C-alpha cells in the first residue's frame, strides 16, 4: 500500500535536536542504536532520527512520553528549527523543500498542523473569521476564501453553525473541529496531527475522527471502510496527499496505514500499521500501550499474526484458536446489604452506611436567556466505601450534581444530606474537610512555590497547624508517591504529577469522600492508569468513598461497580456497571461508547448465540472467559518485561504490581514532553 | 458581572450599519453631548441616544449599567457645584447648602454629559459585534498586528473569565475565604486566585504562537482580508449626516448657544 | 523607544499582548474588593497586573494593559470618549515598570525582581515603581476625564492613585515571587523575545535623571493639578494646560530612559 513509486513526502536524516540552546550535539553515530535510559532527561530529545514518510500514506507515530513524538512532528513544518531554535542538526526535506532553511509561515502553504489544545489554536472573533484566518495569511483572494469556508465547515461537520457565532461559546469538540476546518481551509498537501483528540470527550473524539477519516478517504486510497462519500472540497484540492499523526489512543492509530514506533528519540520499528500494532514485543520495547484485545489474545497464546485489533475481529480469532466464550455469571450483579462484588480493580466492595442522601435535587443556572435547569429532580444515595461513576453527555448535569456534594452548589429545591445533615447547614470548611473535590484541571489551583506549601494550603485554611499539619502533608505526599519532592516547584511537574499534587492537597485534609471531576482528561494512558490506581488504593485501604464524573468508559468499567447515567438533568440509569454495559440501547441513547473489551464480549456472545450475556469488564475477565480451561496464570506467558508498558490494563491480581512498578521513568520523561509544549 | 458580550443580535438599521458609520453616528452623539454646558441643550443628544438604544434592543444593557449611570449622575451633581463659580439667583438654600442657578444647571449639564457618553457607548457596543469592531478598526487604517491582538484578546477574554470562576471555586473548596480580614489581608487572599488564572494563561503563549505561525501568520508578509464590508448608501448617508451634525453643534456653540 | 513599535514583528510578543489584555480584562471585571462608588472607585486586584507585567513583558505589557482596559470598557459598558484616557493611561501604567526596574540609582536593587536576593531593597524599589506607575496612570486618566468635563481632576486623580497603588504595592511582591521564575523558565520575559538591537538599553548620562523624572513628574503633576483643580473658577483651563505640559515631560522621560532588565539577566 505504501508504494515507494509515489515518492517520499518527508525525509529525515540524522536528525538530532535538543530544546536547550547552545548545546553541543553529539554525533548521531554515537547516539545511534544504543538503548537510551528513559530517566535521562538531559541531552537531545531526537537522537538521530532517520525516517521516510511515504507520500500518500496516513502515518501514525507512537511511542512513550518523552520519546520525541511531538518534537518529531515539529520538524515537518519548520517549527523546529525556525520557531524553536534549540540545538539542531541533520537534514529534513518535506515536499521537496529544505525545512532547515525555510520559515514556518512559508511551510504553512504546504503543511497544515493541528495540535491537542484547541483553546490555544483559536484566534478568530467568529466561526467564519476563524476558518478564513489561515487562507488570509496565505493571501488567498477573498472571493476564493468564501468557498473554502463552506467546504471545510461541511467537511468538519459544522455546516449548521452560524458563521457569525463566537468560538468561545462552542463545545470542546466543536472548537477542535473548527480549528481542523481552519487548517484544512489552507489546503495543505501534508497534514500533521499532534494528539488531536486528547482533550476531547468521546463524542467530540468521534466527530473529529470522522472528519479526519473523510478527509483521508478523499484522497488517500486506503484503510478498511474508507468510503467514497467524502467530499472533494474544491476542484484544485481534494484533501491532503499525506497525513502524519501522533496519538496514544489505539482506536485512532488504527485509522493509519503506516506506523512508526519511536523509542528514546530514534525510530524503533516502522511498517504497515497492522503488523506494527500486533508486534507485541516491539510495542513493549517502545513502551506503547498494547491494544487491549491484542494483549488479551497474546496472553491466550495466540501468535502475532492472528491477534485481533478491533472487536469485530474477535469471534473469528477465538474460533480459529479454539477458544470458547464463557460470559461472566449473573450472580454478581445484585448488591448485597454489606457489600458488593466490586469492580475488576477490586474497588467499592465494602459498603457501610449511607454518606450522601439526595432527594429531588433541582438546580438552575441563570443565563441571559432565563434560567436553565441543569439538575432536574435527582434522588441518589451513596454509601460509605462506594465507588460511583456519574456519566452522560456534556450538559447532562453530572458536574453540576457533583458540585452539590461539597456545597459548591446549593440545591434550588430538594435536599442534599451528608452524614444525615443538610450540606447547606455545614460551613464551607466543615464540609470541605470531609468532602474533597478534585477539579478537572490541576492548573486551576496550583499557585504555591513548593509542593509542600501547595499541599498544606487546604489543611491550613481548615485550621490545621504545626506537627499535625506536617504529618498530614507528609503522608499525603507519600500516598501520591511524590515524597522527596516537597521542595520542588509543582508548576514544573508533568500534568500527571500536577494532578497528583492536587489530590494530595485534598488527602491532607483526611477526607471521608472524594469527588473527582474528570480527573484524567488530558493525561496520557500511563498517567491515567497511575492516577486511577491511586484512587483504587484509597478506596480499598482507607475506604474513602469515591464519586467520579468521567467520560472514560474504560475507567468506569474497571473501577466503578456502580454507575449513574444522567440525561437532561435526570438519572436514567442507576445500577451495576456490568448491567449498564449489557444494555446496548441505553448506551446508544446516551452516547456512551463501551470499551473494546466490552464490545468484544458482546461480539463473542452474539457469535455464540447467547442473548443477555453479561460482558467482561477487563482484560483479565476476557482472558478468563476465553481461556478458563487453559489454566494459565495471567502472566504465565509474559516474561519479566511484561509489566513494562502494560499500563493500559489493570486488574485485581496485578494492582500491586502496577502500583509498585509504575514505571519510575514515566514522570521524568513526561516532564520532557510537557516542557516541549511549554516552550 | 457576566462575561457575556453586550452585543444584542438584532437586524435593526443601526445594526446593519458598517462599523465605521456606527462610530460616526455615536461620535456625533458624543460631540453634541460634550459641546453644550447647558443641560437643556445636552438633553437633546441624551434623548436621541437613549431612544436609539431602546430601538436597538439595548434596554437590558442599560438596566445592567443603570446603577453606575445613577451613581455617576449623583456624584456629578454633588461634585461639580464645588468646581464652578456661582451665578444667577440662588435656587437652593438649606442650611450650609447654598446653590445658585448656574451651579445647579452646570452640574446637571455635566451629569447629563456623563449619561450621554455611557448611553452612546452602549449604543455602539449593543449594535456592533466583536468581529465588526475589529474589522472596523482595520478599515479605518489601524495596523493589522494591532487589530489581531485586539481580536484575539476579545476571543480569549470569555475563556479567561470562565477560568477565573473555576479557580475561585477550586480555591474556595480548599477553604479560601475572600471576605475575611482587613483590606490588606483581603487583597492578599487574592494571590491564590490570581496566580493560577494568569499562569494558565501564559503557559499557553508558546503553543499559541507556534499554532499561529503554523497557520501562516507572518506580519512581514502581505495577506488578504475576507469579508471586509463596504460602505453602502445608508452607511454614507449616516456618516455624512453625522459629520454635518458635528459641524452644526460646534457652530452653534461658537455662536454662543448652549453655554452657561 | 522603537521597540514599542518593532515588537509588533514578533509572534510571541503579539500573542503576549493579546494574553495580557485578556487576562487583565478578565480579572478586572469580576474580582473587586471594595466598591465605594460603582464605576469610579473600587480596589481591584487586577490593577497589580500592568506593573508586574510591565517589569516582565515590557512593551507587550504596555499595549496589553491598554487593550485590556479597552475591552473592560467594552464589556463593562463604559466604552466612550473616556476610554481614550483609559487607553493612554493604562499604556503608561504598563510602561513605567519596564522602564524603571533597575534604573532607580542609587535605590535600585540591580537584581531580578523575584524577591529572593536582596529582598528588602527590592521591596523598596518595587514600591516606588508601583506608586510611580499608578500615579502616571492616574494623572493621565484624570486629565482626560477632566478635559471631557466628566469628573474634576481633583476627584479622580487621587482616587485612581490610591486604588491602583494599594493593589499594586500589596499584591506585586508575592505575585512576582511566585511567577517571575516560572515565566523566565518558560522563556517569556521580554529580554528573551526582543532582538538585542531593538532593546534601548540604559546608556545615556541622562538616564538616572529621566528615570527619577518618571517617578517625580506624575506626583508633582498630581499635586499641582489637585491644587489648581480645587482652586475653583480659573482651575479648569489651567488643569488642561498643566496636563499638556505634564504629558510632554513624561513622554520625554520615557524616551530617554532605557530598560535595564536585559542587562540584569545578562542578555544584552
UniProtKB/TrEMBL annotation, chain A:
Limits of the ABC transporter domain: 31-289, 356-593
Topology of the protein relative to the lipid bilayer: Peripheral membrane protein
Gene3D superfamilies: P-loop containing nucleotide triphosphate hydrolases
CDD domains: ABC_cobalt_CbiO_domain1
Keywords carried by this UniProt record: ATP-binding, Cell membrane, Membrane, Nucleotide-binding, Translocase, Transport
Cellular-component GO terms for this entry: ATP-binding cassette (ABC) transporter complex
Stored SUPFAM superfamilies: P-loop containing nucleoside triphosphate hydrolases
Known function: Probably part of an ABC transporter complex. Responsible for energy coupling to the transport system.
Protein name in the entry: Energy-coupling factor transport system ATP-binding protein
Species annotation: Halopenitus malekzadehii
UniProtKB/TrEMBL annotation, chain B:
Subcellular location(s) per record: Membrane
Residue stretches spanning the membrane: 17-36, 42-59, 66-84, 104-128, 140-161, 236-255
GO cellular component, one term: plasma membrane
Keyword list, A-Z: Membrane, Transmembrane, Transmembrane helix
Membrane topology per record: Multi-pass membrane protein
InterPro entries documented for this protein: ABC/ECF_trnsptr_transmembrane (IPR003339)
Protein name: Energy-coupling factor transport system permease protein
UniProtKB/TrEMBL annotation, chain C:
KW Membrane (keyword) present: yes
UniProt keywords, alphabetically: Membrane, Transmembrane, Transmembrane helix
Transmembrane domains' residue ranges: 12-31, 51-72, 84-101, 126-148, 160-180, 209-228, 235-257
Pfam families attached to this UniProt entry: QueT
Gene3D superfamilies hit by this protein: 1.10.1760.20
Domain of life: Archaea
InterPro entries in UniProt: QueT
The name this protein goes by in its record: Energy-coupling factor transport system substrate-specific component
